[in-house]
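Fold these two proteins, one after the other.
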Amino acid sequence: MNFDFSNSEEILDAAKTENLYRKLVIQLRKDFGLANIEIQISNAQDSRGLQSLIREKIYYLILEKFDAYLHLLYIIDVPESAFKNIHLTDVVEVSEQMTFSILKRELQKVWFKKKYTPRNIP
């Protein structure tokens, strides 16, 4: 799989194409939970709603709970290069760019798990 996406919509479309969307949602819930950040993502969440929900949560964390935001990025394991590529304009734009980075990293995680998990585990 090529992880050279240009926006969040492409990431979510790829997740659907690879039949990884549900696992992506599960991974997001897991990592937000590990960071002790409450987020309500339903199994029936559509891709636009999911993207919006994450962006709004990131926006809130940047403004209100910056330490929790940094902890979340650590838990998700967002690469340092993602920070270097952020264009500092305003918080809305930063939250959009970080949503992209989060979704990209989470898709990588679920794709690698699918690819490298033995199929016939007893």
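Now the second one:
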Amino acid sequence: MNRLALVLVIIGALNWLLVGLFKFDLVASIFGGPTAILSRVVYTLVGLAGIYTISLLFTDFRRDREV
């Protein structure tokens, strides 16, 4: 679940990078515009992944590697 959330957050970050630098929304261009249902689904999933990854800020990764 962590990896999936991170992948979605990275997709969102790259999309915002393109919007910021070039005014180009890749998600909207792929899925038919910013108000298309598929674009809204992707935006929602990226947003939920961002909320989920907040929990990773409080995860002690060193503990996971000590087995």
